[in-house]
Amino acid sequence: MKNTARTMLYGALVTCLFFSCKQEEKSAIPWQPLFNGENLEGFVKKGGNAEYTVMDNSIVGTTKHNTPNTFLTTTKLYGDFILELEVKLDSSMNSGIQIRSNSIPQYMDGRVHGYQIEIDPSNRAWSGGVYDEARRGWLHNVADNPKAQEAFDRKGWNHYRIEAIGDTLKTWVNGVPVAHLLDDKTAEGFIALQVHSIDKAQKAGTQVQLRNLNILTDNLSEYSKPSPLPLKQTKNQLTDGEKQAGWQLLWDGKTTNGWKGAKLDSFPDKGWEITDGTLKVLETGGGESTAGGDIITTDTYANFEFKVDFKITEGANSGIKYYVDPELNKGEGSAIGLEFQILDDARHPDAKLGNHEGSRTMGSLYDLIKADENKLVYPIGEWNTAHIVARDNKVAHYLNHQKIVEYERGSDAYKQLVNESKYAKWPSFGMVEAGPILLQDHGHEVYFKNIKILPISTK
Prior knowledge:
Blueprint lengths: L1 H27 L3 E2 L9 E5 L3 E5 L2 E5 L7 E5 L6 E9 L5 E8 L10 E7 L10 E4 L3 E4 L5 H4 L8 E8 L2 E6 L2 E7 L7 E6 L11 E10 L3 H4 L8 E2 L6 H6 L2 E2 L9 E3 L10 E4 L2 E4 L13 E3 L6 E9 L4 E9 L10 E8 L40 E8 L2 E6 L2 E7 L3 H8 L18 E2 L6 E10 L4
Parallel strand pairs: 13-16
Antiparallel strand pairs: 1-15, 2-5, 3-4, 4-15, 5-14, 6-11, 6-15, 7-8, 7-14, 8-9, 9-10, 11-12, 12-13, 17-29, 18-21, 19-20, 20-29, 21-28, 22-25, 22-29, 23-24, 23-28, 25-26, 26-27
């Protein structure tokens, strides 16, 4: 009995010492509170009209009918950080924690967009996964991680750890590693809690609660935790959401597979360079197709969605052409097709030219339709996203997720625009049933990556 009592006492002392050490270790970390536990000072509401209050040292978000997603955002922006918090919510809800997110007038009239760390008590159980709110959708879901799917407690409080350091995002839910993602879309933004919109069939008044929000912003390498999960990359890869939707990669980021010169049987041996996962047009003085020349896909497309990230240098000119007809111009110059213009509007003279005013500016349907003047263009040296949707002759250009051009091929209005343009000498301009996608060599340094297509069936 004495030995048993002595053993129990020893065990209790060891346990106390262990937890005492853990407490000291935790208290030694210089956490800064993100929420003061008393009011919403340092936060502002954006998006919808759901309610946020403070109760029992927790932020409480309450669902409401007839309102879009509502976000309680920090007034301060954060780039690299480690964030820990606890969350609890009604099991009928969906919610999320926004990080590196933004709201600017030019982007969908101020809609909140950016990375969201999922809070998902549904049977799908993707809590801790990474979603790109109002942009690309699912980047890193939890479908292939059964341990992570089991980590979330639908009835109680859940501990989240989120690391955003450089271009790497890591998440844990209740100590279980969930996501390990490499993505460079956004480097800085606010942190926010989401109250998701609800439909009429869902009960209003359900709640999501957050407490113990603490953040680190300095000496992050000292406190960062390694993740045992394989690193999932998005650069020149399909995201989880794109895979599910049927998107295809048009460029693998390493080789010239799937591409050739617009007027060649193979890829050009000059004028283009593959470097660090980007497809680069080399600077050769600004001539149109005078160096390596344009490149086109080896496959053709009729109805499709096309996306590419591009980055320009000062004074640059380039373009993305589609429904290209190689028969229209076999001589000097660029191959002929409908063009999403890529241009430094502030510095290149083409911005003030064109048979239709403004029709040679960034994102315009070249020489035919001017892009929306309120378009969002990121500065020289930053990446922009072009998105072209073409279905049943109805075509739209999107720049950074904002629709900037819309038209219908073959309509009377379209034919008139062509007759008034540089393409008037080709009555069938832009009307081939299917054609390759083209990236233009206009002799200026321009970069492309994340080149993808979604073929659309109209049967």
